[in-house]
Please model this.
Amino acid sequence: MTAITPPSLISITEKVRKLKLLILDVDGVLTDGKLFFDNEGNEYKSFHARDGHGIKLLRQTGVEVAIISGRKSNSVALRMKSLGIEHVYQGHENKVSALNEVLKKLNLTPDQAAHMGDDLLDLPLMTRVGLSIAVADANFAVIERADWCTKLSGGEGAVREVCDFIMQSQGHFDEILTTYLI
Model:
């Protein structure tokens, strides 16, 4: 539980217990935000393996994960498919419409969702969900408006930090940990 920045640990834990959906931005959250292109225009992204494993574990507890990104990338589609994430919205500069769509599809209310972002494009979602999360290296305006700021930076395990805390707060982490201690 050291991932939370005081003083609002109790209110954040209460919000986390309600969560049924974690929405993630891609560039700057699942990646470090750097964009790599080769001479043919192919784009490359680097994803942290622990973030991916955390997402898989979180989904096993019944919390859905969705991706809402302003950019569109084949590497994102491939990575999300490998993680089993069904709710992938790419190329959505108006992220609110994607948020509304995924909430309706899953029959959830905004307070049952969290959004994890790093830049100004994420603020419209962060202000509409039950829990807003900024990565450690997010834009200062995003950090100021977030309920919680991770200790780790985007692409460096911040998503795993959030997944672990959700599982701890909802009482699932010990049960999952036990399966690895056999």
